[in-house]
Every structure is written in C-alpha cells, then in structure tokens.
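User: Modeling request: complex.
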Amino acid sequence: MPDGLNVDYDGLIPNNVGLAGDARVRKALETWHPGYIDWWKVRGPDGFNDALVYLRTAVSVDPSGWAKFGFVRMPDYKWGILLAPAVEDRRIPFGRHRGEPAWQEVPGEYRAMLRRLLVIQGDTEPASVEQQRHLGATAPSLYDLRNLFQVNVEEGRHLWAMVYLLQKYFGADGREEAEELLRRSSGDQDTPRMLGAFNEATPDWLSFFMFTTFTDRDGKMQLEALAQSGFDPLSRTCRFMLTEEAHHMFVGESGVGRIIARTCEAMRDAGIDDPTDIAAVRRLGVIDLPLIQRKINLHFSLTLDLFGNEISTNAANAFNAGLKGRFREHTLTDDHQLAGDTYPVLRLIDGAVVREDVPALSSLNMRLRDDFVDDTQGGVGRWNKIIARHGLDFRLALPHVGFNRRIGEFARAQIDPAGHIMGAASWQAARDDFLPTAADGDYLATLMRPVREPGGFAGWIAPPRLGIDNKPGDFEYVKIHD
Ligand code: BYC
Ligand code: FE
Ligand code: FE
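Assistant: Request completed. Predicted assembly structure:
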C-alpha cells in the first residue's frame, strides 16, 4: 500500500500524519487527550461508558478497506488523526490564487480567517454528541443503539481532526482554541455552542433521525466546500471525514424510512386509510405521518440557518482567499474566480419573495444552500415511495426555504411551509400545524422505551433490511452488562 494510507497504532494517538516524528504536536495532543476523555465521560453518551459496542475503526484511509469492526468500550475507542492521501502537485482550485501550488502551511494573511473556519467546524462536532447524549436510554433496538454510538464516536473523531489542525498550524492560539472546544457546551446559558441548531435539544429518536438526515447533511456540504481548500491539510482532512459522513446520513434517512414503513404497515393491518386520523393512528402506537412532516419542517428550517446569510462578504472573502470553495468545485466549468458573474438569490423585497441576480461571490452561501436542498430532495422522494408502496394517499415535502428562519433574508418574515407570507398573528395561530407541538412531544415520549433484547425492535419502527457488517438480525450489537 502506498505511504500514508495505513494508520500507525503504536502510540497513544493512531494517525497517518507521522506523529511519532513530530514531538511538538504529539505532546500538544497528548496534553489535550485527558480533557477530551473527561469530556466524553461527562458529556458524551450517558450511562454507556462500560458497555461493549460493535464499532468500526479506521485502520487505513484507503477507500476500499478502511474499516475494522470489533467490540470496544467507547472511552477506549481509537480516535485518530486521519488524512486522505496527498494528491501529487495539487493546485489551489479557485479564488485569486487559482493555479498556484496548494499551501502546506497557513498563509499569514489568511490566518485569522482559516482559524475561524476550523473553530466553527470543530465546534459542531462535540455539540452533536452532547445533544444526543440522552438517547441511549430510549433506543428502539441494539442495532439503533450501536448506530447512534458509531455516529457519536466519529463526531468525536471529527473534533480530533480540527484540533489537530489547530494545534499543528496555530501554535499557542490553536492550543487555546482546542481547550475552548471542550469548554463550550450545547444549550448552555453562558457558554453555548457557536451555531444555532447545535444548541437545540434532540429529545427523541425521530429528532435524532431527522438531525442526521438534515443537519449531518449540512456537515457534508460544508465539508465538501472545505475539501476544495487551497490549504492542503484541511482538504485532506475533510476528504477523509466525508467517507464517515455518508454513514451518518444513511442512519438518518433509513431511520425515518423505517418509521414511515412501520406506520404504514400498522395502518394497513388495522384497516385505517386516512393518515390524518391522528387519534386512530396513535392508538396503534406508531408515529403519524403529519407529525413526521412537522419534524421535517423543524429540522430542515433549523439546518438552513447553518448556511449563514444568503449574501455574505465572509463567504466571498473565504472563496477569494482560496480557503472555502463551492460544492464539488472541481466539477464546475466556469473560471473558478467569479469576478463578473451573478447568481440568483431568493430575497424578501417589499413584502414579496423574489429572485434577484446578485454578484456570484457574495452569494456563495445561497449557492451551497441550493445544493443542499437538491441533495435533500432525493431522500424525501424515497420516503414518499415507501408511503406510495403501501397505497396511502399522503406526501411528505420540504417546507419553503423562507419558513421558520432566524438567519438571513427571511428571518424578519412569517412564511408558512407552502411559502405564503403571513401576518405574525395568523402565523402564530397556525404554528401548531407547522411545527411539532408540546402534545407531539408528550406522545413521542410515551413511545420512547428502550428495547434491549437482541433482534427486538420497538413497535414504532421497522427492522432494517440488513444488519451492520452483514451481521444476522439477532446480533448483540451492544453488550450492556459486561
Ligand atoms: N448561528 O456572513 P455570514 C457539521 C453568524 S455542520 C449563529 O452570513 P458566514 C455537523 C456568523 O458566524 C457544518 N450565528 O456568515 C453536522 C457571522 O458572525 P460573526 C459546520 C450564525 O461566515 C452534524 C455572522 O452571523 N461547518 O459539521 O458567511 C453533526 C454573519 O454571517 C449563523 C461549517 O459551518 C448561525 N446559524 O456563514 C456534527 C463550516 N449563521 O463572525 C457536525 C464553517 C451565521 O460576524 N463555517 N452566523 O460574529 C462557515 O463556513 C461559516 O461560518 C458559516 C456562516 C456558513 C457557518
Ligand atoms: Fe462530523
Ligand atoms: Fe456527521
């Protein structure tokens, strides 16, 4: 195998970046490590530090064979520093330095901008673990419990990825930022996480699956944009992170799909064909489709806020600098500098939603958000196919991008999921049709009862078609009492 593909497991911190020969960075990481483990034990998965979990660990960054499965206690998981293989003679793919050799060190003039991007990216990773820490208590099966923990340990590793870049390339500032990443905490009054959606609660498993469908997909889009970076270590880090992200979105999309399948099946067996007959559907102990729609409305709108303002000079500066590109920049065929170009942006002007051409450089957040919406549509289509297959007359849909927004053009407006602008009072009056209600939360709470016998599943979710790592249906993915 070519150099740098295999992971060195000899030291405390598995890596393919030659840590054994880099005493300064190794020491910084080893100094940070105990604080990380404390953080994991106190703010990571609640009550499962001693459980044996069937997890995959990276042993190589070669896409054809990087994962090894085995039982581990999560605090002993081999979090490591893994970069995708270097591309020979890589060039900066966009911006004002386009065509120059990719940077192996941080260009002094872009130090502050790059540090901010790394810190924001790094902040989201532990935040999601904190948001999900109570879910182990109510997992609908050992299969789902294992998937939750797989996502959690990989988000932990993504934190390591950003901490490595901060400590290696930003000296004392980087070490301080790495400490702060363990200090801020999701939902905290005084020291919250940096971005809105990462301070929201994830109270139930439907929320978890929605979060991994929508919010982890923001992760994918942002990582795709950063994978284009002219700062080569960031590009290589993000390329490897993306291979892990695919599983997170699989967990989300298939989780929601299994909930939908179970609901449709239970309705069919009971002879109920009206999906809006909530009382009848809930008597079956399954999750009604209108509630699933309200959760989509919530998680989609929270996630759109993560793309920032539609029109942003930060985004233009990061692109010009060659630090953050567009989604799959390398497949685009323009000049990759965009100086005279425009892009259509949805705006709220004189009380109406209109599309307006704006300089392309200023509208990069909008463009990435559009790519996100496209990418999301496929999953909703697959959910609708499950409903159609059961012969039910109901369609799930993404709400309008202006619905329920707190950042950007639509933050000031009240827009319904269909895209109609409303008065504040009528929006409030209709709110419970749009977003999950307290009663929805109470109902879901009654369903959230753990199922822990191997092969068992809660009554509101269908089993998966295939096990993880081709394991049989009754495989004991998590050994809780060992
Ligand atoms: N909440 O010029 P603007 C993931 C702030 S998810 C709070 O529009 P920009 C994951 C903004 O910071 C991917 N504040 O901003 C998923 C700025 O403040 P300052 C995470 C917000 O920079 C699941 C001001 O408003 N990675 O990996 O163009 C599980 C002006 O804004 C928000 C990244 O996001 C908000 N939602 O765009 C685990 C990539 N939005 O600096 C993990 C790195 C904006 O003026 N981040 N503001 O005080 C970025 O590229 C950009 O910072 C953003 C914002 C896209 C986030
Ligand atoms: Fe992540
Ligand atoms: Fe993720």
